[in-house]
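Sequence in, structure out.
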Amino acid sequence: FLNACTIALDARENTLDAAGSLLEIWREAGTNENDRRGAFNYDPLGVLAKTGTAYYPPDKSCEIAAKLAADSRTMSHVTSLLADGRPYHEAGASEAQELAAMLATHVAYLRACEAAGLRPRMAFGQIAIALAADADLFLTIAKLRAARRLVARIAEACGAGSAAEKMQLAVTTSERMMAARDPWVNMLRTTIACAGAAFGGAEAITVLPYT
């Protein structure tokens, strides 16, 4: 039931190929553009941060990302790009640093979209954000709520008004908080992290296995 469930991709440098395959599946199923629900999650800057390599130079990658966003704007329930703070969290970033990296990525994609002729109001609906949730319940809640206010401030600054209300927030429980020894305690950590993501207002939550 492709018109009822949301499909989110996690294909990293192969996202464009995976997105093309998903579009073909939707077409073959006869799913109308307004009934398609999904997230392509194209994030070349996040892949570069996580792996240290990129298929294209950053400027070219952002240009390709903007074209994907422009081509996807007619699908009202599909986001094409992802501003991801999780690679920085897993590398040891603090909550403020994770937010800063996510916001910098978000602004880079907005600028690329604007250069491609996509107005900020339309571009905001194409960029989802992703953050990590850890075992510090209240700090996780504060981080996620701060993320919405900060993205709203960006929207206000670029004249997009209330466009930030369309922002989709995906949260994954932290890998770096997990213990290798006595892994049973990880179930408590992921439970707390999941609760923090829910209270913080995430649209999608991924809870990693405890071991």
